[in-house]
Amino acid sequence: MAEGDTTTLERPFYEAARGEADHPHSLVARFGADAPLPLDAGGMLSPFQIAYQTYGTLNAARSNAILLCHALSGDQHAANVHPVTGKPGWWETLVGPGKPIDTDRFFVIASNVLGGCLGTTGPSSTNPATGRPYGLDLPVVTIRDMVRAQSMLVDHLGIQRLLAVVGGSMGGMQVLQWAASYPERVFAAMPIATAARHSAQNIAFHEVGRQAVMADPDWRAGRYLVEGTSPRRGLAVARMAAHITYMSDSSLHRKFGRRLQDRDGHTFSFDADFQVESYLRHQGEAFVDRFDANSYLYVTRAMDYFDLAADYGGVLAHAFKGSRTRFCLVSFTSDWLFTTADSRAVVHALNAAGAQVSFAEIDSDKGHDAFLLEEPEFSAITRGFIDAAARAVGVA
Amino acid sequence: MSPRDIAIHDLTMKEAARAASGKRVDLLLIADMVAPGSRVLDVGSGDGELLELLATTRGCDARGIELSREGVNAGVARGLAIIQGDADLDLADYPDGAFDYVILSQTIQATRRPKWVLEQMLRVGRRAIVSFPNFGFWRLRLDLLVNGRMPSSDNLPYSWHDTPNIHFCTIRDFVDLVGEVDAKIERATALNASGHPVRVNLPWAVWNLLGEQAVFLLSRKD
């Protein structure tokens, strides 16, 4: 962590620092010169690759595929042990044999987003033009670019129509974009704890995170991989600030209150006296071991730029005009990052478009993170919605 | 008024009046008023029983609004499109003429703004169907006359101070409200205590005495 730690490494020292970027511990779909990815920022990305995992078996009719879309700090390891952290997949509460998204019945696909750092092309991937990591030379990507890339992966897997596209937070933005861009390819859509546009408050939080990264002298204007440094402190602070927004006041209070960390009284210093401080420091530290700082900039930026209505003349309902996709939106009472009002705005637009839509607000004090945690009512409604969709298309 | 209260009330009504088929009589009556293949919004859809009835027997595109999370979960699990929401607020979110029918079954007496709700129903739908317990039913009148207390019954089991039903009306009161919102009564049926329709060729005053509940099909005048 201290400056100069990496100066003793042999070139190219960034190989080790980039972890999973080029050769991830997962499946990889590579798209060459014949399949360039058009980007909203202009130009084409080529070649590029998508790292993904699948669970379960695709049926003969190719009708049982469910695509999972991950959130800001997620990846393709939704339901398997994570190759870097050794922890369970991020959605094992919901995805697995016999679970609401049942891998005994469905072919579940989870891919790392464009701009990510777990094997899909992102700023830590090798730029084929230079042989070095892209860094900030990678064009800024959008949610729509991410979804366009995912649609190429779904093509690559030989799947015409997805039984369902499911995701929370930024994953929910991707679900909405899927339904708007490829309505005929999405039978059922489940956007969870999300919004059709990123709010000013959310952009503000992201900006704090990005400034923390960029204020770290080890960031080196984004060239840290080439220069052999790592903006660990900046990224850790970004993660600490963001983590607060994922929890509710009451869940922080329940978990930590004002309890002290391994001490009997205040130390009258700036050490981590309180458990909540110690917890946040740990969250920050753990994050930098698995996430690339530039990816954090790119992916937060993609969320900031997301405003689905803007692509449809400012009228969100137009994004879903004539849609035959069935929707189920879910929000959580204590989520103040993506509120029930955000979900209701989408429901309103879907109603105006005449789309088939269900909506449930789940009572939870766990804040935005509730969608990743054990929430029985959320599990039940997910199971019901997915099962009903499967019945409707004749998936056993 | 809590979501759960409405759900409980709904169950009580359900058990009170079931046809041989096991369906609520008022729901069968309502379904009978709906033209096949139409677009329907059921406000206070409970666990989705009417929506399913309309979808399976009338080929309708049927959607619901329901306050209780349990009701929404049960309906979504049956493959129905149900939005968790409050009739008193969320009807405003629907565009004009989005549905052929908007249905309010055994719920109007639990709304805070019955007149506003009825107006919204007739804005959002070309027709509105309303079923409600008739407070003019002879047994309730007798109960008040003899006992001098707020009436309660199997269908209306709540005490006056702890009830989701804050806006009771009689059939005649409802007919007045229909006039106030300038709607047209296309059909009306009253059900007696055993769930059978009261004979149609009797005046309102008699319906108001004999009907334990009533079902009205309304349309806009224009």
From TrEMBL, chain A:
GO biological process per UniProt: homoserine metabolic process; methionine biosynthetic process
Pathway as given in its UniProt record: Amino-acid biosynthesis; L-methionine biosynthesis via de novo pathway; O-acetyl-L-homoserine from L-homoserine: step 1/1
Organismal lineage: Bacteria, Pseudomonadati, Pseudomonadota, Alphaproteobacteria, Hyphomicrobiales
Protein name: Homoserine O-acetyltransferase
Positions contributing to substrate binding: 239, 369
Stretches assigned to the AB hydrolase-1 domain: 64-373
Single GO MF annotation: homoserine O-acetyltransferase activity
GO cellular component terms attached to this protein's record: cytoplasm
Gene name of the encoded protein: metXA
Catalyzed reactions per annotation: L-homoserine + acetyl-CoA = O-acetyl-L-homoserine + CoA
Cytoplasm recorded as keyword: yes
Residues at the active site: 169, 335, 368
The protein's role, per its UniProt record: Transfers an acetyl group from acetyl-CoA to L-homoserine, forming acetyl-L-homoserine.
EC number(s) recorded for this UniProt protein: 2.3.1.31
Keyword line: Acyltransferase, Amino-acid biosynthesis, Cytoplasm, Methionine biosynthesis, Transferase
Annotated compartments: Cytoplasm
Pfam families according to UniProt: Abhydrolase_1 (PF00561)
Subunit composition and interactions: Homodimer.
Protein family: Belongs to the AB hydrolase superfamily. MetX family.
Broad class of enzyme this protein falls into: transferase
TrEMBL record, chain B:
Organism: Ancylobacter tetraedralis
Tree of life domain: Bacteria
InterPro entries in alphabetical order: Methionine_synth_MetW (IPR010743), SAM-dependent_MTases_sf (IPR029063)
A Pfam family per the record: MetW
The protein's name in its UniProt record: Methionine biosynthesis protein MetW
